[in-house]
Amino acid sequence: MRIVNRGIDFLARCLNAICVKSKVLPHQPVADFQLDVTVPTFYIGRLNSRTDIAALAKVCRKLGLPDPTQEQELEGAELPRFIGIQNPPPLFGNKSRPSCALSQGKEIFDSLARAPEQKIQVVPVTILWGRNPGKEKPGLSTLISHSLTPSWFRKIFVVLFSGRDNLIRFSQPLDLAKLVEGRTDKEELPHKLVRVARVHFRRQKLAATGPKLPSREALFNSLLASPTIKKAIADEAKSKGLSHEEARQNALDLLDEIAANYSDAMVRVADRILTWLWNKLYNGIDVRYADQVRELTDKGHEIIYVPCHRSHMDYLLLTYVIYHQGLVPPHIAAGINLDFFPAGPIFRRSGAFFIRRSFSGNKLYSAVFKEYLSQLFIKGYSVKFYTEGGRSRTGHLLPPKTGMLAMTLQAMLRGIDRPISIVPVYIGYEHVMEINTYLKELAGDNKKNESVFGVFKAIKNLKNYGRGNLNFGTPINVNQFLNEHQPDWRDAIHPTDAQKPAWLGSQVSKLADEIMVNINSAAAVNSVNLLATILLTNDQFALSKVQLLEQMRFYLRMLEDAPLSEHVTLPEQSAEELLEHALTLNKFDVMNDQFGDIIAITEKERTLFNYYRNNVLHLFAVPSVVAQQLFKNHRITRSECKAQIKRLYPLFAKEWFLLELSDDYIDNILASFAEQGLIRADGEQLEVLKEGDNQATLEMLGKVVHHTLLRYALVIGLLSEDKKLSPSELEKESTAVAQRLGTLHGIKSPEFFDKKVLAAFIANLREEKLIEKCDDNTLVHSEALHIVNEDLHQLLPARIWQSISDTVAATR
Q: Using alpha carbons only, how large is the chain's radius of gyration in Å?
């Protein structure tokens, strides 16, 4: 037997050396889990496989971790360092010999009982060969799947076919003290260790591969047999005068239009193509806070990813990142406009399911789609959808559309037995592929439908697009959200019929707003949006290189000292490195004279740069107002500063989905200004220091939100006139005044004239009760609006107010 085992060990090492390429998560487990390599360390795995141990040993040597093939000394005894909770079956027969996990566990707990002060690490390690979830009805492909427990001979073929897709994931060491706590029966401890490990590995496998896949035919038959769709089919037949079979066929056609057809093989092919594509397009993709998503999957949560929507690249990038974090790619809600050849079939096999823009007037479609979505949640698939509904053309987050969220909550009311967490995701780019198209659409061009020619054109135009950023925001536990906001929500649970209780609409709206706030709270500053924020406030969109670097350092230091949220990320490079990188993107002109370099945005990029600045404009809202207060007044009290910001902040917060304002945030901004030598903060008194370029530095920062304040001022200026306007008349006149002011002051920002943006601001004024609608459909303003108007007068230059006054007077 020993000779056979040595032969298997030798074969395992050979296979690993030739065929195995392991992806390790997290990349630095020693640092991430604060592992101490000097204390007794054991690894616990699902299968006591020689091949698994050889693959783990290869990785451990690279990471500087103890070798799992060696024995661990524990109080003079030599114990195997790897604990496999299950042995593989023999080559012939089905019955495996019992694992030594219980006896190894007993030795560990006995040692702890004798010396409770000693530290012993038991590190769970998930080892997956490939990421195929398997089929509900096994076929030939499952013979080489990691979902089986193969004999050593069959494992050879698993390694040959899936060795390049090996995933090794380390987890937080088990808290042995917790397992021991309160236990009087010490003999039970090894059994508890094995039970905890089994649950952990089951969750890890589900998180990495997803549940087993039904055949498409079996899925459709189960959906058509549901009471909800049966009733919808009957109603369809009755309302349209169809036979039952014709109505059923209509439902089947709709399912075929909607449903994904997930294929692990397609995902693996796409992974290789996308790896090439990202290397071709980007200098790197910065991913932050993925660990919190993995923690949720460890706890058995079902994950719903809700990213912002900047580009069609989002579909690919987020799925790629999720896959490379060791998690199963989600089923993706994609617009039906993307279901064209060849993209549609590829997306569908990568997990996309397709949704029409409107369900209006089609009860059968609505019932079929809702039931399909419910089944995804019930079966345990992760899902991704864009609550904005479409791609942002301005760079700001769009107001959320709540249809998918409402259907998600309705699915929960079917009685899903797992917690559901929504993970907001911020995605940012230094270059958005469609940005020229967005500009044309904002100028009035019709939106063009996607087609195969657009795909080929995009491929043809591949170039250096800089860096990408993907930040996972603070997750929202939907169960906890409902417990807090709607404690009786469980009363509406019905296992077969998705209810629509009276409270659904209001809670969906609250949830949607919280998601958008969490997306913007995870914003990423990069070289392009930082430079856009600075240069767009300057005449000719240019600055000397020296002054530009100084302003970059000031902004980066300020954002570090006074972050809007702990999830906001800043680039790790210095200002000089960021500028050097940005200049390689062909978006800037560098002019040189006897006084040094001047950096300017190229003429064709000037309007486009508003998009990139808008990605992070919300991070500068409060600092910009504070800077403008100081620049205009030179001396101001802390109380006056805070009071004015608190009056304006609700308007910013609603438009840009901001966190609730805190005094600490304002104090941190002022402290940063003081520490950088711009102001003197003496208790209540704040005073601008006149040394150096302090006033110029504050003036530039103060200008960052000028266009936003100007937009507010022109709307409020129209409201302050004696003539009464209806909401539609106010929107129309505001748009006309905005266009006039844009011409007078050279404003190129497309959203400044955008009717939707102006309409949203007017709606915000009503929501904040700064204006009200009378019975005759005209608007009246409150006294509080006068105070806001006075704040704007103090913050905006006199020439701006003269233009507003003259233009508003001309509308009388």
A: 30
Per-residue 3-state assignment (H helix, E strand, C coil) for 8-20: HHHHHHHHHHHHC
User: Rounded to whole angstroms, how far apart are CA atoms 751 and 611?
Assistant: 9
Residues 301 and 476 sit within 8 Å (Cβ to Cβ): no
Beta bridge partner(s), residue 168? 24, 127
Q: For CATH 3.40.1130, list the domain ranges present in the chain.
A: 217-520
> Can you give the three-state secondary structure of 470-508, one letter per residue?
EEECCCEEHHHHHHHHCCCHHHHCCCCCCCCCCCHHHHH
Residues in the chain, overall count: 812
Q: Give the DSSP letter string of 646-666.
A: HHHHHHHHHHHT-PPP-HHHH
- pLDDT 10s digits, 440-464: 777 666 666 655 445 445 555 667 7
- Fold classification of 217-520 is Glycerol-3-phosphate (1)-acyltransferase (3.40.1130)
pLDDT tens-digit series, residues 34-76:
999 999 999 999 998 888 999 999 999 999 999 999 999 988 8
- The pLDDT of residue 449 is 60
Backbone angles phi, psi at 36, to 5 degrees: -110, 105
* Rounded alpha-carbon distances, angstroms, from residue 96 to 87, 125, 623: 6, 21, 66
Q: How far apart are CA 99 and CA 101, in angstroms?
A: 5
CA atoms within 13 A on the CB side of 165: 22
Pairing mode, strands 166-170 and 121-129:
antiparallel
CA 728/CA 715 separation, integer angstroms: 12
Distance in angstroms (rounded) separating the CA atoms of residues 443 and 459: 26
User: What does the pLDDT look like over 259-284, one tens digit per residue?
Assistant: 999 998 899 899 999 998 888 888 88
Cβ pair 581, 595 in contact under 8 A: no
Separation between Cα atoms, residue 603 and residue 588, nearest integer Å:
9
Residues 785-795, mean pLDDT to the nearest whole number: 92
**Banded model confidence at residue 1, pLDDT cuts 50, 70, 90:** very low
- Cα→Cα distances 611→397, 431, 520, 793, Å: 11, 10, 15, 27
Q: How many CB atoms lie within 10 A of CB 328?
A: 25
Residue 462, pLDDT score: 63
Q: Which residue has the higher pLDDT, 703 or 343?
A: 703
Beta bridge partners of 72: 79
Which are the contacts of 252, defined by CB distance < 8 A and separation ≥ 6?
A: 220, 224
pLDDT tens-digit readout, 344-378: 899 999 999 999 988 877 899 999 999 999 999 98
The H or E element containing residue 244 is helix 244-258
Q: How far is CA 225 from CA 248, 354, 416, in A?
A: 10, 21, 19
The H-or-E segment that residue 596 falls in is strand 596-601
Q: What is the mean pLDDT of residues 79-103?
A: 82
Q: Are 400 and 763 in contact (CB under 8 A)?
A: no
E-only strand ranges, 272-325: 284-288, 302-307
Which residue in 481, 455, 388, 454 sits closest to 427, CA to CA?
A: 388
| Bridge partners, residue 597, by sequence | 592
Question: How far from each other are the two terminal CA atoms of the chain, in whole angstroms?
Answer: 100
744: left (phi over 0), alpha (psi -120 to 50) or beta: alpha
Query: Amino acid identity of 642?
Result: K
Peptide bond before residue 26 is cis, with ω within 30 degrees of 0: yes
**What separation in angstroms does the CA of 403 have from each of 183, 388, 497, 508, 512?**
49, 10, 18, 9, 10
Q: Using one digit for the tens of pLDDT, what is the confidence trace for 213-247?
A: 888 899 999 999 999 999 999 999 999 999 999 99
Residue 497: phi, psi to the nearest 5?
A: -135, 120
Nearest Cα to Cα of residue 201 among 130, 156, 147, 135: 147
Instruction: Count CB-CB contacts under 10 A for residue 374.
Output: 22
Strands 166-170, 22-25: pairing is parallel
Query: What is the model's pTM?
Result: 0.91
